[in-house]
Amino acid sequence: MLRTVSSLVRGAVRAARLAFAGFGIAAVVTAVTASTGSLGNFFSYFTIESNLVAIVVLLVGGFVDPRSPHWAYLRGAATLYIVITGIVYAALLSNQDVGPLAPWVNSALHQVLPLAMLADWACFPPWSRASARAALGWLVYPLAYFAYSLIRGALVHWYPYPFLDPRHPGGYGRVAVYAVVLAAVMALLAIAVNAIGRWRG
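Above: the chain sequence. Below: its structure as tokens.
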């Protein structure tokens, strides 16, 4: 009986992952269709990149549902990145003009997918006993993204977010302050995501 209930729950979870992945795909496709800029700029948004990673993780989790430590680590990273997207949007970008982006697309990318990924991680974590130091390894990608955005921005004269744009008053000093604060917040989030996974696991 318990095995049957467990199988039903697992099936429902996998179906929900696929449903959220489909919703995310629809949002990204709608966003890229409505975009008036270059594809290079579009795919240089951390929002888009983190949502694409989340969609892939949800699809794999829905179709295959791996249980290896390496997959657990990847799921944790994807959860962290999409949570960063949601928190940074709420704290710094919620009042910014999103251009032609439809409200439901904006909500899907910045709220629905982050909450879905966090709930999936908290309720069904595959975590074993990863250290906080290992979780901090997840920060390599956001820090590399920060460097990429500054280098590319200087070359093409376009920056994905206002807090990354040194052309605003304060220049690179202002950007550096944001970088330090965001790095500290992301480190705390990485430790928190790891702790949730270990506790629930």
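The chain has a mean pLDDT of 90.
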